[in-house]
Amino acid sequence: MPEIPLDIKLSTLPDSPGVYQFYDTDGKILYVGKAKNLKKRVSSYFHKTHEYGKTRVMVKKIDSLKHIVVKTESDALLLENNLIKKYQPRYNVLLKDDKSYPWICIKNERFPRIFPTRKLIKDGSEYYGPYTSMKTVKVLLELIKSVYPLRTCNYDLSPEKINAGKYKLCLEYHLGNCKGPCEGLQNSEEYHKQIDDIRQIIKGNFKSSLHYFKTQMKSHAKEMQFEEAQRIKDKIEVLENYQVKST
Question: Is 151 exposed, middle or buried (0-12, 13-18, 19+ CB in 10 A)?
């Protein structure tokens, strides 16, 4: 079956969100991009003068294109990101702009910190995203912070330094936002159980966290520790409310 000419493909592009891919005469992928309106965005490459020489060179090499229609611009962003990772198109590197999207990082360290970032560093840390806005990331991290006490300091919490008494408890501990692993008041096993539950929350799975807190709440109520049971009940309500919104 003969290849459809490029000009016909351009004229039949939809006015929909999606992802487009440019190919050269050898069928090698040149560039992957996303668009709120595929017809307008892709046509702009061929109907205007480009400021950057690299863009002009790329356009001259385009022999064919493919497109994928998605429901929303956010879907286009995520698909574009995955395709760039998969194919590593040459001009996505050469024409890379300063715009980067936010991620949630679980730092590769003994007591992992969790924070938003726009930079992906290959040091073994985990990155979740990309997200379409920093606001979404902050809302999710505020939820996590309200439920799980995590450290925010950047100390090297190695067993040797903790045992040597290198660090002192900070205000975050006294405010109840951290359990003091810097002075050995929280072990790494307990901390990593929290991290496992947080991973699931970020992925949209609240089952493990809700089960854990409900078990704790019942245990405290049975021991007539009603204040602690109420505190955990509040956390359950925060998680359940966010789960409904997330769904």
Answer: buried
Q: Which amino acid is at 189?
A: E
- Here the tokens at position 70 are 């998605």
Looking at the chain, the whole-number percentage of residues with pLDDT higher than 90 is 49
Q: Check if the beta carbon of residue 113 is closer than 8 Å to that of residue 67.
A: no
| Cβ within 8 Å of residue 78, ≥6 positions away | 130
CATH number of 6-94: 3.40.1440.10
- Predicted TM-score of the model (pTM): 0.59
Query: Domains of the chain: which residue ranges?
Result: 6-94, 103-205
Residue 49 has pLDDT above 80, yes or no: no
pLDDT at 186 over 90: yes
Nearest to 194 by CA among 155, 147, 230: 147
146-161 tens-digit pLDDT: 889 999 999 999 999 9
Residues in the chain: 247
CA distance 114 to 110: 12
198: pLDDT strictly greater than 80: yes
Amino acid at 199: R
Contacting residues for 1 by C-beta, under 8 A, at least 6 apart: none
